[in-house]
Amino acid sequence: MPRWWSFTQRPNFLMYDIALLLHIYQPPTQYPEILREIAETSYRPLMRVLKETPRARVTLNICGSLTEQLEHLGYQDILSDIRLLVEDGKVVLTGSAKYHPLLPKLPPQEIKHQIQLNQETNERLLGRFEPQGFFLPELAYTFHVGRLIEQMGFTWLIVEDLAFADEEHRRHDRIYGIEGTKLNVIFRDRLLSLGIAFGSHKSPESFLKSLEAKGEEGYSVLAMDGETFGHHHRGAMDLLMGLLSLPEINWLTVPSLLKKYETKREDVNVLPSTWGLMEVGPRQERIFPRWDNPDNPLHVKQWQLFYLALSVMMRCNADQEGYLMARAVFDKAVHSDQFFWAGGDPCWHPGMVERGASLLCRAVEQSPSAFPEEKEKARVLVREIVGLGKKLFGEKIILE
């Protein structure tokens, strides 16, 4: 047992209320061998830590794209562990969009469709699934997306803290709502979250010092990829267990946190945002720096292909022959990872980019409403995307 799992109580002992939200997801184009590695090094150990740590309380988003792949690859034990943790009250699940698209890029009917797909898949594989909270893929928020999520019955969502229009006056002793809706909004503590996600904190004590240095009363919300633990950082699973065992921290699920602080509530303006805003600081006009950078010619061509596939799909009628097959392909093809891996700042994955483009092309080719010239245009764009990407960034995968 690492020596830092036990702590002497400080003279001025304080309890910090913290909610931890973990997001686990894999795109439909993921290589099976990579998913198996992630399942073995991250998902299984993560479930074990949550089961074995008495004070663990986590809010978990798992997209239907991942639950389906885990079932297909035989990882029913991970799905069973999630069900058990939910039953024990250690984990609360959120809703999301099944294939992890950037929701502001989709029309309302497609957003609803992705959310319904996620609901159906997770209900089938995880049992009773009635989430009140919603996880926005890439934390991509706009007001019209938030309003639609409210209409679908969700009561809260989480966004990046840079989305708070008046950040200097944000308080941590109250709950905020989104102006013009009844939705509660939780703001991710970006600096604390990134300190863990990027490996700056090597021990629970290091994290605790950062928490104390903030000097703020109330609560904090951490949100990051669940793959941070065990996959992105091999030794981070011990860190997670140490964090969840800290006597100074009262770990809460987001619903428990909302209930505890609900007596103070204030509506605020929430800005369009993603958790990629960390790369551009106050330049909030660049909302999608990792996924839609206008200075990246590869992104420009990817979005041309995306909107070609979307326009073709929007013309389809559900009773047309071949519609269901094309629809199933398109649903998967809108995932956000293909754009992330084409960012080149620094990440680049030629295989994932080509797989994403090919899936969008296949959706066009299989659509009963596509014209021959649109099918040819899609094929040309795939070739241009692959060729341009390799010209810009090379043949090899770049991770950092």
UniProtKB/TrEMBL annotation:
Single GO molecular function: catalytic activity
Stretches assigned to the Glycoside hydrolase family 57 N-terminal domain: 26-233
Keyword Repeat: no
Superkingdom as given in the UniProt entry: Bacteria
Keywords: Carbohydrate metabolism
Keyword presence, Methyltransferase: no
InterPro entries the record matches: GH57_Enzymes, Glyco_hydro/deAcase_b/a-brl, Glyco_hydro_57_N
A Gene Ontology biological process term: carbohydrate metabolic process
A Pfam family this chain is assigned to: Glyco_hydro_57
Family to which this protein belongs: Belongs to the glycosyl hydrolase 57 family.
UniProt name for this protein: Glycoside hydrolase family 57 N-terminal domain-containing protein
Lineage: Bacteria, Bacteria division CPR3
